[in-house]
UniProtKB/TrEMBL annotation:
GO biological processes: methylation; RNA processing
Sorted UniProt keywords: Methyltransferase, Transferase
GO MF, any single term: RNA methyltransferase activity
Residue span, tRNA/rRNA methyltransferase SpoU type domain: 117-260
PANTHER family: RRNA METHYLASE, RRNA METHYLTRANSFERASE 3
InterPro entries reported for this sequence: Alpha/beta_knot_MTases, Ribosomal_eL30-like_sf, rRNA_Methyltransferase, SpoU_MeTrfase, tRNA_m1G_MTases_N
Pfam families: SpoU_methylase
Membrane in keyword set: no
Highest rank taxon of the organism: Bacteria
Name the UniProt record assigns to this protein: tRNA rRNA methyltransferase (SpoU)
Amino acid sequence: MRLNEAQLFHAREPQPGLFIAESPKVIERALRAGYRPATLLVGKKDLTRDLADLDHEMAVNKTTGLGQTPIYVASSDLLRQLSGYNLLRGALAAMYRVKRPCLAEFLTKMPPIHPRIAVLESVVNPTNIGAIFRSAAALGIDGVIVTSDSADPFYRRASRVAMGTVFQVPWTYIDAKSWQAEGVSILHHFGYQTAAMALRHNTVSIDNPQLAKVDKLAIVLGSEGPGLREKTIMQSDFTIKIPMAPGVDSLNVAVAAASALAFWELGNQKAR
């Protein structure tokens, strides 16, 4: 069976599909988070060096391990002949997805005091998705909402760039049309104020003391090119920007880099 990652997403409908985890570290974090492996392809040295130790530790801790998972072992010479091996970091695992919670269920599970979440609107680059999740895990963001027209956080490249933190940070999808129609209103209903990353006449700096006083805050980041939709900006409670040097009006970098700076400032407000 030859399926690309998008086809694997739908492979078991109506059940959740499959995803590919690449590298022992990413596979380890997926296992620790409770995701079940369907099958593995492993280089000889990685089977004995990394995955054997991992399987033993999982068994000791009585968590999800490799169990009876079929493991295909190949020599380095054979792996080099396989298409795409230049992207393989020692091991590949096909793993089962789980059903993601609806937005309302997701929001009710956030911390009750001073939660900070991120909303990714149409962020289509898997590398940026991965970098955003890694920043979120490191910088105090409690959860991430991803619109369905964004790249999948479980795409192989995204989870690899994230170093497996996509399995640690709570997240869920919202249908892109539903987000456009009522997403901000739903956040407001659950007590969140929204801060859109955009440049407008009323934009405030991310270090503005007013933001620190907000009890529940959702930071909304837009696509790499056009940015946030105008409707999203208009409905948001704040528009925020990263302070620039004199004469520079915007940060000409990927959305992932901007997210790291915003998460550092806004996520760490909880500790002040």
